[in-house]
Amino acid sequence: MLGSSFIPFAVRFSLVGFSAAVVVLISIGCAPLNDSATATGSNGFSISRSSMNPGAVAVQLAVVQLDSDQRDMFEQYWSELDQMKLPLPVRKKADENGLRYAVMSPQVPIVLPQLLKRRELDLSQMDDLKRQMAEAGLLQSPSRMVSHQRIENDTGEEYEIITSDVYPQKRWSIADGGGVPLTGFGQLVRGVYRFSSFPQTDGSIRLLMLPEIHHGISKNRYDVSQRTFLLNESQIKTKVTPLEFAVDLKPGESLIIAPSGTSQGIGDLLFGHAGLIAGPAQTINQTSQLNHQIESALRDLDARVDVDADMSESQTDEKNVDGADVDGAAQPVTPLFRFLMIRMLHAEMGNAFEADSSERLTTVNHD
Question: Per residue in 352-362, pLDDT tens?
Answer without folding.
Answer: 344 444 443 34
